[in-house]
Amino acid sequence: MEKTALVTGVTGQDGSYLVEFLLDKGYEVHGIKRRSSLFNTQRIDHIFQDPHVPNPRLRLHYGDLSDTSNLTRIIQEVKPDEVYNLGAQSHVAVSFEAPEYTADVDALGTLRLLEAIRFLGLEKTTRFYQASTSELYGLVQEIPQRETTPFYPRSPYAVAKLYSYWITVNYREAYGMYACNGILFNHESPRRGETFVTRKITRGLANIAQGLEQCVYMGNLDSLRDWGHAKDYVRMQWMMLQQDEPDDFVIATGKQYSVRDFVNWSASELGVTLEFRGTDVDEHAVVVAIDGDSAPGLKVGDVVLRVDPRYFRPAEVETLLGDPSKAHNKLGWAPEITAQEMCSEMVAADLKVAKRHAFLKKHGHDVPFSLET
Ligand code: NDP
Ligand code: GDR
């Protein structure tokens, strides 16, 4: 029998890859998208189906995780076999500026969905996936972090996600719901939001190489992350809901790199060698070699990156490294794309766009193009 899935956060990075994956598996997919003054469906436009065609396999509903009646009505209409709760105010730095909103959406939003499922009597039939996060580990208590490592959240985002983690466990234990937490470490892709660190780097350096920007301003370059590819991670989100018993899993690569490493990989994809000079807030990256004409916007000696304390967080998560053994042993999951391969894919995608903009600019076309990162 064809299954039906409901995905919150369908317009986001993971939502777009998950919907592709579920459609490939033959699911009927329903997505909740927010009303916005501009179109916000760029990541799923390629799989969007005109609602006027008979039996579209992807249907979008306007909704918001802060709106209980809206969520309840959508779940009542769709009666999903599986709910994937990917919607969130997902930016850690922004959560310090909007802590209450972040708590409403990232913590209470999860409760609203679980309660709607229970209230509608679907708790024994609808399976629930919660997008939990390595940010729960925050000030890490053990290296590497696994399912049993104690949590120590370090941001309003992480504290809100901590509530969601436990309310998911609680509904599983209290009402026998099939509800799981995927504790996902950072995962990226060419569809990553432009203000997360990897995409900020690949997009910023691609623009600089094409002469569209001069310098990218960044925060803590020493931060260490375990970066995987979103495509590998959404596969695991689905796998978690196909087991006999619900459980929680760490999803990670088990390898760790610094933000500085990611800058160097990205520069090298562009044929540019950088040298980091200065320390702390004075640190900057200088071009010391360029391979051929790969970066027409640059010359040796240019400063392409500067540290700006504005991007430091009030409390930082310095290091994250996951141990995905449980997912590997129990579900047979392993990531297929390395962090370096992912970086290469991201730079190529951003370079393609930057080249198009540079070409149009050179021929006198004024392209609306935000350099804000
Ligand atoms: P994105 O920021 O790319 O996407 C977030 C999605 O949530 C968007 O579709 C956004 O809509 C939607 N959203 C935001 N606020 C609301 C709201 N109030 N009501 C309904 N929808 C809302 O995140 P990712 O795809 O990267 O991440 C998916 C989930 O996984 C998030 O919950 C995130 O916290 C979590 N996570 C992500 C990790 C990562 O490394 N990517 C790691 C661990 C967890 P819009 O497009 O309109 O803004
Ligand atoms: P993170 O991702 O906070 O781990 O949350 P992000 O890419 O924003 O930051 C990673 C690390 O890089 C440092 N950093 C910078 N970060 C940003 N955004 N901009 C900068 O200029 C910059 N300079 C240095 C940060 O301080 C941090 O240490 C992501 C989100 O997807 C969450 O939703 C998810 O839960 C976690 O990953 C796992």
From TrEMBL:
- This protein is called GDP-mannose 4,6-dehydratase
Q: Which family does it belong to?
A: Belongs to the NAD(P)-dependent epimerase/dehydratase family. GDP-mannose 4,6-dehydratase subfamily.
Q: What does this protein do?
A: Catalyzes the conversion of GDP-D-mannose to GDP-4-dehydro-6-deoxy-D-mannose.
Q: Which GO terms describe its biological process?
A: 'de novo' GDP-L-fucose biosynthetic process
Kindly state which reaction or reactions the protein catalyses.
GDP-alpha-D-mannose = GDP-4-dehydro-alpha-D-rhamnose + H2O
Which Pfam families does the UniProt record give? Answer: GDP_Man_Dehyd
NAD(P)-binding domain: which residues?
A: 6-346
Gene name of the record = gmd
Enzyme Commission no: 4.2.1.47
Q: Which InterPro entries match?
A: GDP_Man_deHydtase, NAD(P)-bd_dom, NAD(P)-bd_dom_sf
